[in-house]
Write a structure and sequence with these properties.
This protein has 334 residues and is an alpha/beta fold. The protein has 13 helices and 8 strands. The protein has helices at 13-33, 83-95, 107-119, 124-138, 157-161, 178-181, 196-231, 239-246, 252-261, 265-274, 277-290, 299-302, 322-332, and strands at 6-9, 42-47, 65-68, 73-77, 142-150, 163-169, 303-309, 315-317. A hairpin with a 5-residue loop joins strand 7 (303-309) and strand 8 (315-317). The termini are far apart.
Length: 334
C-alpha cells in the first residue's frame, strides 16, 4: 500500500492497512511535537523477525522494530504487542535531522522512546516500566516490600497477622559504570554485539536521562542542547550538559534513585508482571506457613497482598494480577 510519502509492505491488506492508518496519524503528530524533524520517502516492511535481508550479520532478533537509514526503511515485527509505539519509535529515528545527531552514545534511543510514549500513550506505561527497571537494575537494583494482611474476621486479627518482607530485584553487574558508558556506547545499532541485558541497561539509562530532560524543559530544550553543541564545534553534546539538564549527578546512586522515583502505580504493576518470580516465591512460602487450605481456599480471597517500592512512595495490590497468581501456583506445586 502506498500513501503520500510511505510505502507499506506486508502479507495481508489487513496488516498493511493497520500500519498505514497508524502512519497517517503519527507522521503529522511527530512533526508537530518534535523540532528538527522531517520525513521524506519511506518504506515500512512488516516481517516475522525484523532484519535487513541484504546484511544477515546485522540481524537483531530481539528487536520489535528497526530502522535502516541507508535504505530509508522501517522494519516492524509482525504481531508486536505495541505496534503504534514501536512504529512511533522507528519513525522518530527516520525523521531526526541534524543537529540531533549530536546526541552522544545511546541517547537517541532514549529520545525516540520519549517521543513514542507521547505519541502512543496506550503503550507508555509498559515502555516506562521496562526502561526504568533497566536503568535501576543497571545501577544496583530495586528494593520491593511485600505486605500481607489477612482479610480480617475479628477486631484483632489484622494487626496480629500482618507479615512483611523485602526483596531485591537485581542483576549481576553486566556493564561496569553503565551510567557513564551510556554516553559512549551506541547500543541501538543493529550490528551491535551487546547482549540483550546490556542493551536493556543502556536503553533504560538513555530513556531515564532524556525523559527527565523532556519533562523538565521539553523537546525544544533537548534540541537546543544539540544546536549549542553544533555551534560550539563539538561532535556531541557534553555529558555534563546532559546531566545538568536532566537534574542527575554523575553517580550510580543518583541514577538509581531517579529511576525508582519515576515509577508510578501503572509502571510498578508492569514491573511486577515482568519479574513475578521473587515475589511469588516469598508469597508462596508465607501461604504455606499460614497453613491455608488451598483445596478449599484461594489465597487472594483470604489475604490482602500489597507490594511497594522501599525507596519510593508507590504501591500496588497483587491479588488480581494473573502473572502473580500463576507464579505463586507454580511455586506451591514444587
Amino acid at each position: 500500500m502506498v500513501t503520500a510519502r510511505t510505502t507499506v509492505r506486508g502479507d495481508t491488506l489487513q496488516e498493511v492497512g493497520k500500519v498505514a492508518q497508524a502512519l497517517a496519524r503519527l507522521q503529522p503528530e511527530l512533526e508537530a511535537l518534535v523540532p528538527g524533524v522531517a520525513l521524506g520517502e519511506l518504506e515500512v516492511w512488516i516481517q516475522d523477525q525484523p532484519h535487513v535481508y541484504t546484511f544477515p550479520s546485522d540481524m537483531d532478533y530481539d528487536a520489535e522494530g528497526l530502522y535502516a537509514p541507508d535504505l530509508k526503511r522501517i522494519l516492524l515485527a509482525r504481531g508486536t504487542q505495541d505496534m503504534e509505539r514501536v512504529l512511533a519509535h522507528e519513525l522518530t529515528h527516520a525523521a531526526l535531522q541534524s543537529p540531533w545527531d549530536r546526541l552522544p552514545g545511546t541517547l537517541e534511543e532514549g529520545l525516540c522512546d520519549c517521543v513514542s510514549a507521547y505519541l502512543a500513550p496506550a503503550g507508555a506505561a509498559r515502555l516506562r516500566a521496562g526502561r526504568l527497571s533497566g536503568a535501576a537494575l543497571a545501577c544496583g537494583g530495586i528494593h520491593l516490600a511485600l505486605r500481607v494482611t489477612p482479610m480480617s474476621k475479628g477486631p484483632n486479627d489484622e494487626a496480629n497477622g500482618v507479615w512483611e518482607t523485602q526483596i531485591l530485584l537485581s542483576n549481576p553487574p553486566i556493564v561496569p559504570a553503565a551510567h557513564e558508558a551510556v554516553f559512549a556506547v551506541s547500543a541501538g545499532l543493529s550490528s551491535s554485539k551487546l547482549s540483550t541485558e546490556s542493551k536493556r541497561a543502556f536503553y533504560g539509562l538513555s530513556f531515564l536521562a532524556m525523559d527527565r530532560i523532556v519533562k523538565r524543559s521539553g523537546f525544544v530544550f533537548a534540541f537546543e542542547l544539540c544546536q549549542r553543541a553544533e555551534e560550539s564545534g563539538l561532535e556531541t553534546v557534553p555529558e555534563a550538559w546532559i546531566l545538568e539538564a536532566a537534574g542527575l549527578e554523575a553517580t550510580e546512586s543518583s541514577w538509581r534513585r531517579a529511576a525508582i522515583e519515576a515509577f508510578g502505580k501503572e509502571e510498578l504493576t508492569h514491573l511486577i508482571c515482568m519479574y513475578p518470580s521473587g515475589l511469588a516465591g516469598a508469597l508462596a512460602n508465607h501461604i504455606t506457613s499460614r497453613g491455608i487450605d488451598l483445596e478449599h481456599e484461594r489465597w487472594w480471597e483470604v489475604l490482602s497482598v500489597e507490594c511497594s517500592l522501599v525507596e519510593g512512595t508507590t504501591s500496588t495490590r497483587l491479588n488480581d494480577l494473573w502473572p502473580i497468581r500463576v507464579a505463586v501456583a507454580q511455586h506451591l506445586r514444587r
